[in-house]
Description:
By secondary structure, this protein is mainly α. Helices cover 71% and strands 0% of the residues. The chain is built from 9 helices and no strands. It has helices at residues 2-12, 19-29, 33-43, 52-68, 72-92, 97-109, 120-130, 137-149, 155-162. It is globular and about 45 Å long. It starts with a helix and ends with a helix. Residues 10-14 have low confidence and may be disordered.
Amino acid sequence: MKLVVFLICSLTSWVSPDVSELRSTYPKANKSEEVTEELFVKLSPVTKTDDAVLVAYKGAVSTLKAKYAQKLRDKKNFFKSGAELIEYAAAIKPGNIEIRCIRLSVQENSPKVVGYKESIEEDKGFLLHNFAKISSDEIREFVKNYALQSSVFDASEKQLFSGR
């Protein structure tokens, strides 16, 4: 089955990944090695010269690849390269709420041992402060869905995202 997914993704990898599809598929990758691999292949052609949101997704998926890697060195390399891509995207687009949400999701779920937790409070505050300003329904839904399931936000903060 993994081979079939890999072949399908390989045939379509020359096409720039669809951000809408990434928004809906990325949350599933944390619980599925197969989804992670599919996204990793789709995002493999993305470079730092592409849209910063795509770069952030590529970085996030790379950190998820670390979760499923067998060798310690592979885990370290996937995570390190992924975190570097996320930080690059956040540096060139610091006001992009989707990138900040992606970074927060990775930092929240990263093991303490990797030490990638330094922007949690900053990104949390950014999401709380800027959520109401999101004009895209799709991005609003992505951020809301993340925040409502996140342990970073308390119940009163989650109400700001759910509108209750």
